[in-house]
Every structure is written in C-alpha cells, then in structure tokens.
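Morning!

This is the sequence you dropped in the shared folder:
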Amino acid sequence: MDQLKQYMAIVLKYHFWVLSGLVTVIFVAAWVLFTMSMSKETSARVSTISASYTTGEQITTIANHPNDQSKSMMEQLNRSEAEQVLRAWQRRFREQENVLVWPEELRDDFIQAVEHLKPIELTVDHPTPSDKELKPYLRGRYRDYIQDELPKLADIIGAVWHASRSSPGGPGGYGSGMGGGMSDGSGMGMGSGMGSPGGSGAGSGGDSYGAMGSGGGGSPYGSGGRTDEESFVVLWSSTNQAGLQNSRFNLSSPTTLQVLYAQEDLWVLRALMMIVKAVNGDAEAQYSAAIKEIESIQIGPDAAGIKSAGSVSGAGGSGSMYGSSGMESGMSGSPYGSGGASGSPYGSSGAESPYGSGSGATARQYDPANGRYVDNNYEPMTAERLRTAMKSNQPSDAFLAVAKRM
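The structure's back. Tokens below.
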C-alpha cells in the first residue's frame, strides 16, 4: 500500500503532463482515422461525379435521345406502322382473292369442297388421312380438267402448246425418252430411236397418261408444229412445256395436296402469261413482240437452283436452267432422255415427284410442299419448316407464314 501511495503521489504531482500527452495521442489518432475516411469518401464522390459528367457528355451527342415523351410517340408510330402493314396485306389478300378463283368448269360440288382449304399447310395435313382426302371422283375430275387448261396458257401469249397430253414424256425432236407411268402408276415406256425430220412428236399407244412413243426428228415441235414466224407471237420451248407438264401437272391419281398445289401452279403460270401478254401489248407476230421467245419457265422445286436472273447453281451445268434440283439431261439436248439422271429430284420413274404419275404409297408419302417455297435468303424450305412457321407465333416466322415465295 505504501508503494501505491508513492506512485499516486507522483501521478498527482505530474498529472497535467500525463493527461496532456494522453489527450494529444487520442486526438492525433482520431485525426488520422477521420482523414483517411474523408479521403476515401472524397475519392468515391469524385468518381461518381466524373461518371455522371461522362454520361452527361454522351447524352449530348445523341440526337433526340429517348425520354418518356419520345417513348410514347415511338409506341404510337409502331402501332401505326403495324396497322398500315396489316391493311396492306389485307388489300393484297383481297386482290388475290379475285385472281385465285377456282374455275366454274370444276362445278359447284368441287368448289365447295376445296375453297375453304387455305392456307393449304394449315388446313391439309401431310400425310392426309384417308377420310380427309377429297373424294376420288373430285380428284379425277381435276386431273382431267388440268390437262385441258395447259394449252390455254400458250393461247394467252400467242404461242403454241406442243406438249401432247397423250405423251407427257416429251415432244418430238429428241430420240429415246422415258415417259411418265401408265395411269396405274406402274408402267413406263421407252420411245424408239430418232424419227425423220418433221416426224411425229407425240407418243403412240398407251392411254392418256401412258408412255412416250416414237420421237420425231428435225422439227422441235413434232407433228403439227408451226414454224411460220407470223403464225405465233411468242416461241415457247416445247421442251419446257413438256417439262412443266411432267413435273407439275402429271396427275394420274392425285392426292388432295397435289390437286391444291397444281392449281396454285396454274394460277402462277397464268399470271406469268398475263405479264408476257401485257409486255407484248398488241403484237400480232413474233417480229413485233418485245418478248419473242420463252426458253424456260420453272416454278417450285424445279427452280431451286436459280438464285437470280441468268444465274443457276447446282448440277445443271453452265447454261442449264435445271440446277441441282431440276431434271438433268438423259441424252444431249433433252432434259428428259432415258429417265431422270442423277440430280433429278424425281428419279427415273417420277415416283418422287410431287405430281408424279405413281399412285402407290411412295407418291403419297412425298410432301409436295417440300422445297416448293423459299425463305428470306431464297433458300428452299422443307415442308416441315414451312408448316412449323405457319403455326408459329415467333416474329421471325411471320414473313414465312404471310408471304410464301416460290
């Protein structure tokens, strides 16, 4: 206790200096800590201000930068544009309704059965259940109708239709050629050798969908072909006519889908003929026509290799108009020859053609929408892709669903 009293006496004697030192240490420590905190906060606030300043400078460089008012106006503009697009498509739909009319020759019962089947991909499934198919007599009626309509296409432009109904395999002027099958879809015939110049271009024997007969030589038109320049306005390649007839309209036992797509093809071809007629105006002979000759018209899968005018890709070769999906030449100068060569989407018998003459299971398994239309990049679409787009709500599929391009 005595020692403690001695220490306390010393502290009491010098307590002023002890307290002064202690207070000084405390204040210095507090100052250091506070200064460090202020420095950090200052740096953070400077960074925030600098970032805000930079953002402000960037805003000044944006013309009409977004705000609540501009957002509201943009929404109004978008709605207005959408309504204009809708009205445009509705107007185009009404225009097409006046063009895409089923002919009265098919009679009321046929028209009533098909006029509601649009769009095709949404109303007719593939494969089509047997109870959803058109009645066989209705499909047979269309088969007979379409053969009589093809020559009328040539009449529109003042051309001559040379492809023979009894010989869908090809016109005269080319030797041996493979025809489309018999009406039961099973038979195929071979034409005989080269005929004499000006010989018959029509096939002999068989029924109206039978095999090709003897080929004529010399004249590209075969029997009855007119060569007088003043007798026609437009020279339409008989080879191309036969190709169109074979690949698009060679119907012996058509399915509902084949009937619907064949009529669509006919509408497209008729529209093309009307364009040619409008361009040629009142021309009465070939020499006065602006469009004097049609070398090739291809639609649907047959035109798959054509990207632009005068440009063909695929296996057709230089100058060929058949491309990778078209029919290749079986013999020099003819796109038909003895059967379809490799590269033909329809094979040697036409069984894989969407309009092939085969009536068996193979023909019915083939979806005629496959490769028929192109996407935004002009690439052929599969039937599955097209049907998916038709049922899709995705904006990327809207164009494919609204505007099908062949």
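Headline: Confidence is low (pLDDT under 50) at residues 166-230, 309-360.

More detail when I'm at my desk.
O.
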